[in-house]
Amino acid sequence: MSTVYEGVGVGRGMAVGPVVKVHPSPAVPVGAGGDPDAIEPAFAAVAATLTKRAEGATKTVADILKATAQMAQDPALRAEAVQRAGTGESPAEAVDRSVQRFVDMFQAAGGYLAERVTDLRSVRDRVVAELLGLPEPGVPVLSVPSIVIATDLAPADTAALDPQMVLAIVTSHGGPTGHTAIIAGQLGLPCVVRASGVMAVEEGTEVAVDAAAGTVVVDPSPELREEAAARARVQAQLAQDTLPGATSDGHEIALLANIGTPADATRAAATPAEGVGLFRTEVLFLDRATEPTLDEQATAYGAVLGAFGGDAPRKVVVRTLDAGADKPLPFVTQPGEENPALGVRGYRLARRNPELLRTQLEALAAAARSTGATPWVMAPMIATVAEAAAFAQTAREAGLTEPCKVGVMVEVPSAALRAADMLEHVDFVSIGTNDLAQYAMATDRLRGTLADLLDPFQPAVLDLVATTARAGAAAGKPVGVCGESASDPLMALVLTGLGITSLSMSIGAMPAVRHLLHHHTLEQCQAMAEAALGATSAAEAREAVRALADKEIVGSLAL
Ligand code: PEP
Ligand code: MG
């Protein structure tokens, strides 16, 4: 019998491969003890490991590794650590404090030096682990395609993973709509979160990760391996269908991609996605210690707009910075908020720092001019009509005028309830069901243990989506959905039936959604929406929809 770890699956993919583990940063013991003479060799060992790794790595990864190795060779840093250890601090503590002094110095200097603090912290973690005899911390450099297992991954770590070398991501903590899971989706990787106990799996062991079932199976049987291969064949076959999103009777519903970086844009542009429904710009900011300049931002936005330009330009919806809560940024967000999800995040950052928003909008306007594109732009976490009106005015003043479109996200229940008023000020709205469920159900989206409450099939969440869709229809303006719910093929039918005009999702999820839509009429989708709204629980709603869907296709997609 194989050992099976159960968690919460994100997406529907499946992968089989060897495990690599991401070890957490070591805790630093305080107080005396330990051999100060161990410090120099520990730095040297870390420098040697990183230099060796750089030899086999791609150029970008090699540059990062060499720069980090150089820091581990810095004589001033080593000397300070040795000197501190001589005054009674434990070697690990001496290293930690010395590095912290350099971090403070680099941050005060700003610019290029401030950008290097991540490397410094990485050196500290590695040297401390070496001194304590612990496994090397952080995301390892992969030499064969592998399944990455971690307690949790910082969004910046997840974004830095090489999608060519990662087959799937598994975490023992974190929630299904947390940003680690979302970035995994953007990379097109199957992901299982909250797989409790999974860190016990030995490095190098073969496992099968099934996102649809939410399982991690150790030493999978030949039958399970064959199932993974068969599912990959079905996916490959579905991917042959490149028609635009529409029901079987021709009701169009645009299928758009969720992206976070220019590299995601290049990947998505190579698929039949009809554009981008959510460009999460904060991903570009995540590994930065200082705010990117207007020019840097304009270049990044231009790269994304350019990828969807050409003879038949495709729509790109850019979301302004959504930092805060689980996406803290050192130069923007306030540490230590008691309830960060209810605090200064998303559009609220503009209260304290209006220039940040203005610079971003001006950078997007510059990118629009230089590429000839006409982006759509929207703000996250809008709670009041006044915020929607103010955002629209700021965006237009920054140069994002017609034919560019200005909109807001509906992810706070107040925005859904007042969508009709919002739409008097903006050209479109896009529903973020991840946060809408979090705030409607008073349930932290990072807490996988409460995942049942976050189910977008919850009738109360569906009511808010339906209210917003009705407001859009009355105003004759687009209402998209860009939360993870759009990736669920059955939910995609419900959203279509509710009158949603576009669905934005990770590119890996799109073929199954497209396939199911092509096999149901608008009338069937409307009947499913009605059935879901008439249910009194999420489970009942999903069952009611499944009962009305084409049995054969539901079976073939294992929905
Ligand atoms: C959402 O909340 O549904 C959304 C799309 O935004 P994010 O997941 O980035 O918070
Ligand atoms: Mg959100």
Entry summary:
With 559 residues, the protein is of the alpha/beta class.
Main sheet makeup = 8 strands, mixed
Fraction of residues in β-strands? 5-15%
- Distance N to C terminus: 26 Å
Mean pLDDT score, rounded? 90
Cofactors, ions, other ligands: phosphoenolpyruvate, magnesium ion
Strand adjacency order, main sheet = 1-8-7-3-4-5-6-2
Count of runs of 4 or more consecutive helical residues:
24
Write a structural description.
46% of the residues lie in helices and 14% in strands. The longest helix has 19 residues, at 91-109. The protein has 559 residues and is of the alpha/beta class. It has helices at residues 39-56, 59-72, 75-86, 91-109, 111-115, 117-132, 155-159, 179-186, 222-238, 262-269, 282-285, 294-307, 349-352, 354-371, 385-397, 413-417, 419-422, 433-440, 459-475, 489-498, 510-518, 522-534, 538-548, 551-556, and strands at 4-6, 8-10, 14-22, 146-150, 166-171, 191-193, 206-210, 215-218, 254-259, 275-280, 315-319, 376-379, 405-410, 428-431, 479-481, 502-505. Helix 2 (59-72) packs across helix 6 (117-132), helix 10 packs parallel to helix 12 and helix 20 packs across helix 21. The strands form 2 sheets. The chain has an 8-stranded mixed sheet with strand order 1-8-7-3-4-5-6-2. It contains 24 helices and 16 strands. Residues 380, 411, 432, 434-435 line the site of magnesium ion.
